[in-house]
Amino acid sequence: MTIKLIAKRYVFSFGKEQKREVFFTMIRNRKTSRMLSMALATCLVVSTAAVQPAASVFGTGMGAVTALAEENAQSTKPLTTLWKTQEVGTHEGTGSYVYDAAAKTVTVNGAGTKFDKSAGSDDLFYAYFEGKGDLTITAKMTVNNNGNAGYAGLLIRNAADEAGSASAALYADLANGSKNQIRYGYHEEAAGGGASQVNTAVTTASSDIYIKLEVSEKTATYHVASKADFSDEKVKTQTISGLSAKTIGFFATEGVTAEFSDVTVTSNYTTDDGAAVNKQIFDSEAGEVNFSQSSSKDYSGNYDAGNSFETSANGNILSVKHTRSATVKGNIRDDKGMDYLLFPETSEDMTISADITVTKLDSGTDKQGLAIGQFNAKTGSAMKCDVLHIQKNIVIQHTFSTISGTGNCGAPKVGKKSDTANGYELGGTYTLTYTKSGNTAKMQVVSADGTVLMGSEANPGEFDLTQSYADLQTGQTVRYGLAFSGVEAEISNLTLKNAEGTVVYDQNDYYVAVGVAPVITNAATEVASDRKSMNITWDVAEEGSGNIKYAVYVSKDGGEYTKIADSKVNSFSYAGMDGDGSYQFKVVPYGGTTMGTAIETAKVEYQAPLAQTELSAKGSAKNVELTWTAVDGASSYDVYKKLGSDGEAAVVTTTAELAFTDTNVVEEEPYYYYVVAKNDNNTSNPSVTMQVLTSDGHTGTYVYENEATKLTVKEKSNDTVFGDKVSVVMAADEAGTAQLYVNGTIADTKQAEAGAEFKFEAALTEGRNDVNVIFTDAEGKATRKTFNFVSNPKYDIVVDAAYTGEDGAAVDGIPTYKTVQAAVNAVPSDNAEEKVIFIKNGEYNERVEVKSPYVSLMGEDSEKTHLFYDVCVAQGNADSMWNRNAMYVDTAATGFKAENLTVENSYAYTNGSDQQADALCIVADQTSCVNVRLVGYQDTLLTDSRVKDETGNYAVTRQYFNKCYITGNVDFIYGAGTSVFEDCDIVARYTEYKADGCYTAGRTYASTPYGYVFNNCRFLAEDGVEDGAYRMARPWGAADSTTFINCYLGRAISLQTSYGDMSGNLAENARFAEYGSYGPGYTVNNKRPYLTSNQAATFATKTVLAGFNYSGEVYEDGWNEVDGVTYWYENGVRQGTEGRGKEVYDPSTDAWYWLDSVQGGAIAKDKDVYLDSNDGKWVRYDEQGRMVKGEDYRYDGWYRFDEVTGAMVKGWYTTEDGRTYYYDEITGQMYHGLAVIDGVEYAFDDITGVMVDCAWYTSDGNDYWYENGVRQGTEGRGKEVYDPSTDAWYWLDAVDNGKKAVNKDVYQESDGGKWVRYDEQGRMVKGWNTNEAGTYYFDGITGAMAKGSVVIDGVEHYFNEATGIQER
Q: With contact defined as beta carbons under 8 Å apart, do 576 and 554 qualify?
């Protein structure tokens, strides 16, 4: 690894007369993976005298580095070094130490007389670091005593300045010049100690002396070896009473000089919340690690005098303020106007983390803000980065340099809090962490209350670095740090760790905490409604100062408190519940290191919710099938349903099963379902809501892309002609039938062979003509090629590229110009009526601005009338989105029209910065473009608004595009206009510089009801564009409204990420929706909101463009066919395009029809429609579009419609001849068989559906009698009924639920009481009857069984009084 050498020279004063020089140099690191591959190199000489800085590195002004203070400065100034020195004891002279960055050594010159192993009264010079926990110092030592007696070595002490402080030392003993041993020594507080040789094989005369001193609590361990790996070490251990080490370093006495190399000083401890910390305090290979300031001036050079960067410290908080240039906006992606705080270079994987509070963000651009992560910093080259980025849209997003080196941004991200519950808000404190692990960047964002916003299961926060710039990938030399532009922020707890988790920089070591803890009261706990967290809050009665934090502890079921985390605000969200129980919380306030008084919450009982079930759903035209996973402990499940995104959810069933089929649905409607598991004592949170479309799939009238026949136009007339005939010569790549439609009517049919040319000639009417060639292949697939021919237009001005005369001179009586702009300028600014400018075929290389109203540009041909211009900000000939276009239509240009021409921005796009190059920008109201080709790459078409209305909102501007061809690759239809696109081709354009893209990026204002509406459009792609590479839309503005109605969605559309986020605005919060989509880009999932039919009707063109006569269509009243679709016109205007549609009566057919706005006013066929007329009714239109009246069979059932109003019959219905039917209250379908209605079971004929009345109905092989549709004989003992069709009486036995009794004797109450018999057919027996028991007689009229003496036909008989059996 190569480290640049950067030296700065400072002069420090040491006492009254002494002066020493100090050098800071960045060095090369040759250590292995456990050593930090970076360095802040110094050659530093320090004495015990007060040190004064020669120059401040904390200051203000452009490019100034914030000042680091001297060791004994006030606590609000950060330390310049962690080295400290102390003259321990009382002695003449002073010692010093030098860290030589080049040699990587520490040299100590001694003072004093001794390390006192017995009396505990040291007298020596001590150069040290402060530390805590377990301390370790390792070094190779070389001692030169110059013939003097004395000591030098490693030393760990409780307090640096107390001579008797408990200590442990490992040192060279040169006392009296005789021992020359490497000894360990110690002394306890004030007195008591000892010393002894550690390794007899190693003496002060040894060529290699390696020593290591470790202290853990009261135990010191001493290591002495002659080898660097300590493989031949000898070890001594000593317990030292009173030892509580807080300092660690080197010492020497007077006359002794010791040089130490291979030095490492580490500290290992556990924080009060249980986190283990392994900290590298010093490494002689690397020196002290710290950040330094630089700017774009050092890299790209793009940093003008308007930028300023200021830093200051308030205790352990670093405050930064970057003011951007007024002329050049900051840009982290391109290294423009940026300031950086970067650590030295390293090739190791590192983790950088900080608590960041952004208090102000400049609104200039989303490329400004604050970023933390890794940077590829090379002098003279633009900075490359991979970072977490807080930007002006109040979001945190991932920003990175792509493989090609251009800037990009996207997921992972955190949206703004106003848009999402777990979001980011300005002024809040958030912990941002960036980790490089191999070729994966792992990013985490945690809010001040402990909520994980990124780096969780819901938002993993990972990025594959193989997608980024090569020099940012694994093993490359980078610098970790922060970047700033147009931002004010406070930074605390900044740390840098290596891959093993060792802390190599800790801001709190250099920035000393100061402050007063706040006083807090009223701690409370509330369990969140979803029971996924507990929210702890407390009041601040008295404000504190400094770096405020609150330590939060939890206790369960009365157990000991355990620290959870630190909160920077007076609330905390706790999600670590460990099962049901009683939870209590304690909060301890801090200001700097000052601890305030703790308070506790009351105990809260907590019950965990049942687990969420996982719901799956499958829709068809007739039903929705739901299945879900079992939940432990659940006894049943509530299934909720709503219609459309704005519907109200209600329980549709409660079941113990794990499946449910919903048949109560309407075809082609979106339903939303979720499931809640429950038992008698608990419930789950709702499952993820599933959107289901009740459809069997969508196909269009025509096919496109890979399914389509390739139709090539070999020759054709110009689009604008002065005559009434045109011709088109075409060829197809397969055989089939070609039909020519002119204004909706078939004009010609030809059989075409594969590859052979065929020619159509069309007769035109004056004005605009809709001409289509429909080619049907052998499989019946139809491919459409559309044309827009204008016949004999009237015009006021001519533009002719071949014209050489004077501009404005009359040619054939018409003013003629060489350029389009000159002709446009001829229209006065107060123009009040349409001025048509006819532009002849030609190449017009000019930028056009239209600023007068009612200007119409009529090209001679959409491909041959070519207006183009090369302009963009990157080119240097534009400076805003309003002038980087080939054509600009100003606010004043109301009523602008364009037809039959091409507008292109010809800038050579390479996917670089500022390469947005618009073909057309329209900010005017009531404009239309017909058969216009718009060609660009990034940002091809902008429709927007630049003025505000009387309410203070931006005025709505309306634009209409019909039969246009619009191509680009990045957000190429964008803006805030209310724009309708009908029958347009929206084409993803191939470029080698960018593989993916997005069709639209709207920024519809929240005050604007409609944004972009695409109706019957095709979203296509050029060859070379990969399948699934494009998103349909992404929200440039948070309230973006983009809607797709009956559109073909082509192969380029990603099914996984159909909608994308943008500029911190989340797609899920935008107004994105679709209806009737088809094609390979069509799918149904939760990320693709679908409209109900009623919702879709509100997006009819006349509704969206209300008040704007956009089409100019002229048709005769009545029915007209356009492209094979039938429409109804009144006064030349197509009907049924507004609201949901329109009901019309055609006297020629004596029938009513429905004009469906969802289909642009087309006649509805085979469709049920709800109408508001006749107090509201459902009606049906047949295959001819006529309203159905009377009975109708379809959808596998019978329906009835009122003979007069056509209203679908629902519920009971009785015909004039007395037949009664029942039609389903929801679907209107006739009932057959048994059905429960209002809790009562009814019977309807299985074939005719007529309600069964006074007749038998057979069910499950048994006969039952029904009256008025209701089964009889189910109450009491039963019922006796007479059937006139058989002239017989029957018994309906209640014991058998009213079943007809057969072969049974029954006692009847009638005729004074009687026994009767029913035979094998259930009929009442009359006359003589014999069975196995004997002979009986039943009255011929009443059917009463004879008993006793009875005269029959003049003969007396006797029947048993009890059984009725004849006895004589």
A: yes
The 8-class DSSP code of residue 880 comes to: S
Question: What does the alpha-carbon distance between residue 1017 and residue 1022 come to, in Å, rounded to a whole number?
Answer: 16
Q: Each residue of 549-559: pLDDT tens digit?
A: 899 999 999 99
Nearest residue to 561 via CA among 533, 583, 528, 537: 583
Integer-rounded Cα radius of gyration of the chain:
45
d(CA 1098, CA 1138): 7
Strand partners, 673: 641, 690
Q: Which amino acid is at 1334?
A: G
Summary mean pLDDT of the chain: 89
What is the spatial distance between Cα 1099 and Cα 1091, in angstroms, rounded to a whole number?
10
Query: What are the structure tokens assigned to 576, written together?
Result: 């670590």
Q: Bridge partners of 464?
A: 440
Contact assessment for residue 742 and residue 762, using Cβ atoms and an 8 Å cutoff: yes
Instruction: Say whether pLDDT at 1343 is over 70.
Output: yes
Percent of the chain, pLDDT > 70?
93
H or E segment and range at residue 825 = helix 820-825
User: Kind and range of the H or E element at 1093?
Assistant: helix 1093-1097
Is the pLDDT at 405 greater than 80? The verdict is no
DSSP H helices in 13-144? none
DSSP helix/strand/coil, 410: strand
Q: 């401040």: which residue's tokens?
A: 56
Burial class (CB in 10 A: 0-12, 13-18, 19+), 130: middle
State the DSSP code for 1059: B
* Residue 356 DSSP SS3: strand
Q: What is the pLDDT of residue 328?
A: 80
Token reading at 973: 């239809």
Sign of CA pseudo-dihedral 76, 78, 80, 83 = positive
Which residues lie closer than 8 Å to 684 by C-beta, 6 or more apart?
609, 610, 611, 612, 613, 631, 634, 676, 677, 678
Distance (Å, whole) CA 39 – CA 339: 21
Distance CA 344, CA 480 (A): 8
- CA neighbor of 397 nearest in space, from 381, 406, 384, 386: 386
Helix, coil or strand: residue 377: coil
Q: How many CA within 13 A on the CB side of residue 1308? A: 22
- Residue 449: what pLDDT? 81
Residue 264 corresponds to which tokens in the numbers above? Answer: 């490492």
Residue 1290, both tokens: 């029957």
- 934-963 pLDDT per residue, tens: 999 999 999 999 999 888 999 999 999 999
Report CA-CA distances (Å) from 762 to 17, 198, 344, 637.
106, 110, 75, 65
From residue 630, how far is each of 531, 676, 969, 1187 by CA, in Å? 20, 11, 46, 48
Do 783 and 715 touch, CB atoms closer than 8 A? no
Q: Indicate if the pLDDT at residue 177 is higher than 60.
A: no
Cβ neighbours for 340, distance < 8 A, ≥ 6 positions apart: 293, 294, 295, 375, 377, 383, 481, 482, 483, 484
Amino acid of residue 1004? T
The answer to whether 994 and 1029 are in contact (CB under 8 A) is: no
Q: What share of the chain is helix, strand, coil (3-state, %, to 5)?
A: 5, 50, 50
Distance of CA 925 to the CA centre of its chain: 33
Handedness of CA 37, 41, 47, 50 (dihedral sign): negative
